[in-house]
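User: Could you go from structure to sequence for me? I need the amino acid at each position, not a summary. Structure tokens:
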């Protein structure tokens, strides 16, 4: 069963710089709050580094409390 997916953007357009960032991911609603998003983000950051993206921009809506919490690490 697929619980989530991630996209790593190697380069940012102006639109992505303001509203998307380098990493986009989503978790199936039934699989949320089980640590999958944290692990997916950790792996995406490692892969971004491997790809040579040394500064990663993460963007989220200010109402996304779950992601805001994860970004405080």
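Assistant: Here is the amino acid at each position, in order:
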């Amino acid at each position: 069963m697929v619980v989530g997916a991630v996209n790593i953007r190697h380069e940012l357009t102006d639109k992505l710089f303001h509203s998307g960032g380098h990493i986009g991911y989503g978790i199936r609603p039934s699989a949320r709050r089980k640590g999958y998003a944290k692990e997916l983000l950790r792996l995406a950051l490692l892969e971004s580094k491997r790809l040579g993206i040394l500064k990663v921009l993460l963007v989220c809506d200010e109402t996304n409390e779950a992601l805001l919490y994860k970004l405080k690490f």
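One structural detail worth keeping in mind: The longest helix spans residues 36-50.
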